[in-house]
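Lecture 7 notes. Example A: sequence first, then its structure tokens.
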Amino acid sequence: MVQAKKVALYAVGCFVLYTIITSPERAADLVQVGFEGIASAAQGVGQFMTELIN
């Protein structure tokens, strides 16, 4: 099982490097979308906590 995790992690790492090298613009867009999603989720949690306190 541990060996399978290592292989999967290695494959994901290779895919990420391949994507960055072959298409840096697309990789940057994906990172931006990811950060926007995280920011939106954090904002939603903040709004929820604010409404919970009020």
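Example B, a different protein, same format:
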Amino acid sequence: MHHHGYLWTGPKARFDQEALRRPPHPEPPPAGSRPELIQRYREVVAEFPRSDLPPLETAYWLVKPGSLVRGSWPEPTAAAGWLRERLAEYASRFAAEAQRDDTYRAALVASAVQRLASGGDVSLGFYLERPAFLSLALVTCGPNRARAELRCPLGE
């Protein structure tokens, strides 16, 4: 088992494009469906695996390109160290003052270690100024507890 780190930051309006953050339904629309529904399904099938947008379900980061992996670690504490560094890096930009607090951020990191050690994933999101959004995720791989069928994007 190992862990991958993911980071996305961008305009909140782009983050809100939920259709591109959901995996496509396993079955296409039935024959005779409206053309715009069929076209939208095709777009999601093509775009979801390639999009850098954070998936609504954290485990689905594993279907994204390996180039989006910001780091890989065999131990939860090392993965949480990366998270600690990213939280410190962005803390001054957090829209909510309470999220800038060192104690608050330390609690998030401690919680991440526990979740990763038990095979879970970690997903955090923060509003930044100018309405922007930061998404940080740590995904357990080999296998993922929530989606064991998803394979490692780096072939590990």
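Note on Example B: The chain has four helices and four strands. The helical segments are 12-15, 35-47, 76-90, 102-117.
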